[in-house]
Here is the input.
Amino acid sequence: MDVQSQVLSPGRRRLVVAIATMFGAGYSPVAPGTVGTLFTVPLAYGLGLLGRPVFWAATIAVIALAIWAASQAEHVFLEHDSSRIVVDEAAGYLVAVSVAPDNVLHLAPAFVLFRAFDILKPAPIGAIDRRMGGGVGVVLDDVVAGAYAALLLLLLDRIA
Here is the structure.
């Protein structure tokens, strides 16, 4: 990434940092990605109460917002995929629970599976961020990790 700083107004800079760090979760000294995902669990629960169409629309909106914020935050933090950027975890976790049956009991397994796929980065997850770069790469690797978690949840639900 070209680390030359993009000039952002102070207000826009604060907005970008707030969204990208999920209002400070990304500053956690231990496991900021896990903390960012934890911050998303109540959002997923609340969206689940509103029905599938609203959940899916919100997930798409979060993915788009995450790509924008991650792109902008790279210019603020002057590094690619800074550990402080955790809005991508929100996007990925929402994908992980987006196809699970309407059951609060799926929130915890989705959390564990999503974090496992996000940390281990089985193919092609690890390559996505490296090849795509920018906010798109930062977010899409988490979206794919979320899709892997969702597929495994569906499989486990069928055999349970």
Remarks:
- The longest helix spans residues 52-77.
